[in-house]
Specification:
This protein is α+β, with helices and mostly antiparallel strands. It has 15 helices and 22 strands.
């Protein structure tokens, strides 16, 4: 559209508009962001991260070849301006952006990527992220093609090979690891254990905004180490913290949407109940027989009113679960499967087919044993405690006595992973990634985290053997449609056999100060500061004077 020119000079209005935009941009620059984490990072080595506190530092100080789009869950270019997967998922080649520098000033090139990949592949380094790239047979090769291009080839096809690279930070081959040269928007400037971590702007950060201004907008970040969530919530309400990465439903309702509470939507995470099926577990043989019965597990799943869990525990901010993949996890969730319907009468009929009978208010097995067992869960988690109580009430309707035992997390892990002194467990999987290979450690029968019966030398049941086969095949299937079909069948088996009773997929609940700009909370972690380089602190008074 052509602009009409008036008789007087256009300099005045144009100058004022330019001044306003300049000051608005200035209002986005500078300042220190404050938030907290629940404990000290276990490591500052970006390749050895296995828990959330360390991952917070990694995501603020490092960058990756690819990134995950938070809206579409598609891979996008990051340090690599392009990439190509070939040879049926056996090879991936990256072309790096030009002009990118590490925080110490050294340029990024293909040798740095190769150096990082070699660290991943070194069995002595025991880098968790390298498990999928270290083959049991054959050799993975890394080839530097030129200063901006590097290729990696694996002996066997890997489904979603490129999906492995949006969480792998790229290290400098020139700087000692202890100097922590990174490609992220910030660098660590000070760390006081048990107190705080300070970060300052990386002067060599490579990104710019749409107007060409250097990112990040913030000068610095201070991360307080605060284990007490109530104290963190109070500090947020006083304006001392600009966001909380995760809040429970009680805190969400106490704050309210008007005061910064945000529901980012349904996560990939799950809450579930499972039974101890370990043959050597120190529990009564007749209880093991219950827990190993598909009909028993399916009946108890049907005895649980999931809608009550959603409404009463999460106040509507969760979704009833049908299996391991949340409906949000497109394209992998088998949407033909629905949560087992609440049907106490149907549950009793199913139990009767395998010898159980309700006498008065007590359910007994074929040998006359009253059905009573304990469920362990972690202390201090209000939502799980509430769920356990509601499930206890549901089970009582069909004559089952459920005892609830809360334990501190180390004791709980000891029981479910080492001595197996438990009967049932109520727990959740959090931080679940989109790609199904992230759950290989749960579904392979030989895995340590095949929770109901880990470390199997060979699959103890035909259906576990079939899941092993399906998960192995999908992990190397280059065709998305074939992979989807394999995973659909895997989910059908889980739905039929009920090794774990899936309960709900919780929503991602966070709290964000209105003073923090450019915030777009995501269901993926980190939920609030994934775009930390674009966040800014509002300086409304400066802009307001111009208005």
């Amino acid at each position: 559209m052509r602009t009409q020119t008036s008789g007087r000079s256009g300099t005045g209005p144009t100058l004022l508009l330019t001044l306003f935009l300049s000051l608005a941009a200035f209002a986005q620059t500078g300042g220190e962001l404050h938030f907290s984490i629940a404990g000290d990072p276990k490591t500052f080595d970006p390749l050895q991260v296995t828990e959330e506190n360390s991952d917070t530092i990694r995501s603020l100080t490092n960058s990756t070849l690819l990134r995950m789009d938070r809206k579409t869950f598609e891979l996008k270019p990051e340090l690599a301006e392009s990439w190509k997967v070939s040879d049926m998922g056996r090879r991936i080649q990256f072309k790096l952006r030009s002009g990118v520098r590490f925080s110490d000033g050294n340029p990024l090139d293909a040798e740095d990527v190769a150096f990082t990949l070699r660290q991943l592949l070194d069995p002595k380094a025991k880098v968790p992220a390298g498990d999928s790239l270290r083959p049991e047979k054959g050799t993975t090769t890394i080839t530097v093609l030129n200063p901006r291009e590097v290729a990696l080839a694996v002996p066997d096809p890997v489904a979603g090979l490129d999906m492995l690279f949006y969480e792998i930070p790229i290290l400098s081959s020139r700087s000692p690891l202890k100097e922590k040269a990174g490609l992220g928007p910030f660098v660590v400037s000070e760390y006081k254990a048990g107190n705080y971590i300070s970060l300052k702007r990386n002067p060599n950060y490579w990104k710019k905004d749409g107007q060409g201004h250097a990112l990040p907008y913030l000068d610095s970040v201070r991360i307080d180490i605060q284990q007490n969530r109530e104290i963190a919530l109070t500090r947020f309400q006083r304006g001392e913290l600009q966001f909380l990465s995760s809040i429970d439903i009680d805190s969400f309702d106490r704050l309210g949407v008007a005061n910064g509470a945000v529901d980012a939507g349904e996560t990939f995470d799950s809450e579930m109940l499972w039974f101890n099926q370990v043959a050597a577990a120190p529990i009564d043989a007749y209880k093991k027989a219950w827990f190993r019965s598909k009909e028993f597990r399916r009946a108890l799943s049907e005895a649980i009113q999931r809608d009550d869990l959603v409404k009463l525990v999460y106040r509507g901010r969760a979704t009833a679960a049908a299996g391991p993949f949340s409906p949000t996890a497109k394209p992998w969730a088998n949407t033909h499967l629905k949560p087992h319907a609440f049907d106490p009468d149907g549950a009793l009929k199913l139990l009767a087919t395998v010898g159980f009978k309700k006498n008065g208010t007590v359910l007994r097995d074929g040998a006359g044993n009253a059905v009573e067992f304990s469920v362990v869960t972690n202390a201090g988690n209000k939502s799980r405690a509430h769920m356990a109580t509601l499930i206890q009430q549901d089970f009582s309707r069909i004559g089952i006595k459920l005892n609830i035992v809360t334990l501190d997390m180390p004791s709980l892990i000891e029981r479910i992973s080492r001595n197996f002194q438990y009967e049932a467990c109520l727990l959740g999987f959090s931080g679940v990634a989109l790609d199904p290979n992230d759950q290989l450690n749960v579904w392979m029968s030989s895995s340590a985290t095949h929770q109901w019966n880990p470390h199997q030398a060979t699959p103890e049941t035909p259906w576990e053997a079939e899941i092993d086969k399906l998960m192995t095949e999908q992990s190397s299937a280059p065709d998305v449609r074939k992979r989807k079909a394999l995973l659909d069948r895997m989910q059908e088996i889980v739905w039929e056999q009920v090794p774990m009773i899936y309960l709900v997929h919780p929503h991602a609940l966070v709290a964000v100060s209105p003073k923090l700009g450019n915030v777009a909370p995501s269901v993926l972690r980190p939920r609030v500061f994934w775009n930390i380089d674009q966040l800014f602190l509002q300086k409304a008074t400066l802009v307001g004077q111009l208005r």
